[in-house]
User: Which sequence fits this backbone?
């Protein structure tokens, strides 16, 4: 029976068994790979002063203008649920002193954007991401992309491609905007409504609009690098050269601009065929963020975990349901046996055997059904009668065979089997 009102808020999801297993696996692999690259975890609050985001992401970005959950605390200060992780990490490192300038940090956690919910677009979603602090350095940008690709392949992702481009130097910005404005002017009535608005407020975003009409207009444009200084083009070439050394294939996409204002130089996004044309699996780039007089520089990326799971379902031949299996299910018959079996389960668990049992006095048939559902390898059947005789029945669930034995023999057998599984 399901209760009314059991649904979470629109665009947000509960995560529970069995689907939670892949989340735990992703988190575990993330921690392992991040450690290989000498990154440490940081956990910042989910709520920040709104200005932490508006000053970093840019006042005219869609995220800040339309998508933040913003409210006032009791003192009338504006607070927001974090829509992404980078701005909070920048606030954190700005308080660290000199060692903050070279910090290597990663995070895993929920983010919130009040977007129209649709496939692949949630209001609470989850990211893992990393930030490597430090000034412009093509080696660091290439290393961040190498880490990201390592992590994806360690998870079993196969069909993801990196699209890369440059946003150039801050001083290129005006020239780029002017170049795009000139190219767009004769095509204004072919643009979607959003892009006509972006023409005034955030013209770069016209380049990655997903509307067909806008794509057609933009396809005829020269690459944005044409409007940049030679230094910016050379920086991108250097990143590409190092990626080649690291044997990381990437595609240059001259129209990739990314939606956040803090980027300079390298930007990239990963696509995946399971996500459709609209949605990126991950995104990142180099940034220079002005925190009121102090500029913080670094490079980083974040991947959307929900989208990553969709991609893994597509790429992994065995699927993503990798919930750990109970090795043993203990089936009881009679009150005395149930009590003794709880003691047996405790002994097994203390010795590292993954083991389940029913404490609710259900029928043996129902308990065997549970054993199947848990995909247990063995059922241990022990009723009041077996207890009297000092015996237990061990049933091999895969082969359907069973044998009677004494308790110490059973313990030794199961501990050995369980050790073999772990190894
Ligand atoms: P972003 O591109 O806004 O970048 O988000 C990164 C990833 O988060 C996206 O590629 C996508 O997988 C996931 N994502 C974003 N919005 C949603 C949503 N509404 N529903 C589901 N998934 C979503 C950033 O957040 C930057 N902070 C990345 C970065 C780190 N740049 C430098 N350092």
Assistant:
């Amino acid at each position: 029976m399901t209760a009314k009102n059991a649904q979470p808020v629109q665009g947000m999801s509960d995560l529970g068994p069995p689907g939670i297993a892949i989340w735990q696996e992703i988190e575990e692999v993330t921690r392992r790979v991040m450690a290989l690259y000498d990154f440490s975890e940081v956990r910042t609050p989910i709520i920040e002063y709104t200005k932490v985001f508006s000053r970093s992401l840019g006042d005219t970005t869609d995220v800040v203008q339309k998508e933040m959950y913003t409210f006032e605390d009791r003192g009338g200060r504006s607070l927001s649920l974090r829509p992404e992780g980078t701005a909070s990490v920048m606030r954190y490192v700005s308080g660290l002193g000199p060692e903050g300038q070279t910090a290597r940090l990663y995070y895993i956690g929920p983010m919130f954007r009040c977007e129209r919910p649709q496939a692949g677009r949630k209001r609470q979603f989850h990211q893992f991401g990393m930030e490597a602090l430090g000034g412009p350095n093509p080696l660091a940008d290439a290393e961040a992309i190498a880490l990201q690709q390592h992590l994806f392949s360690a998870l079993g992702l196969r069909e993801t491609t990196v699209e890369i481009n440059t946003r150039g130097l801050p001083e290129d910005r005006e020239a780029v905007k002017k170049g795009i404005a000139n190219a767009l002017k004769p095509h204004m009535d072919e643009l979607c409504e959003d892009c006509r608005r972006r023409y005034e407020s955030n013209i770069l975003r016209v380049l990655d609009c997903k509307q067909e009409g806008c794509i057609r207009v933009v396809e005829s444009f020269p690459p944005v690098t044409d409007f940049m200084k030679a230094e910016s083009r050379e920086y991108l070439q250097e990143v590409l050269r190092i990626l080649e050394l690291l044997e990381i294939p990437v595609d240059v996409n001259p129209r990739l601009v990314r939606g956040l204002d803090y980027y300079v130089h390298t930007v990239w996004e990963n696509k995946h065929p399971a996500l459709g044309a609209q949605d990126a699996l991950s995104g990142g780039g180099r940034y220079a963020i002005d925190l009121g007089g102090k500029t913080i520089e670094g490079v980083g990326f974040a991947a959307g975990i929900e989208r990553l799971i969709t991609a893994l379902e597509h790429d992994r031949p065995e699927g993503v349901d990798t919930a750990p299996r109970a090795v043993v299910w203990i089936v009881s018959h009679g009150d005395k046996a149930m009590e003794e079996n709880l003691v047996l389960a405790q002994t097994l668990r203390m010795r590292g055997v993954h083991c389940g049992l029913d404490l609710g006095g259900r029928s043996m048939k129902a308990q065997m059904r549970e054993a199947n559902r848990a995909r247990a390898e063995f059922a241990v059947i022990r009723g009041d009668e077996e207890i009297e005789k000092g015996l237990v029945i061990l049933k091999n669930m895969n082969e359907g065979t069973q044998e009677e034995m004494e308790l110490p023999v059973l313990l030794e057998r199961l501990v050995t089997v369980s050790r073999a599984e772990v190894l």
Observations:
- Residues 20-36 form the longest helix (17 residues).
- The CA atoms of residues 271 and 280 lie 5 Å apart.
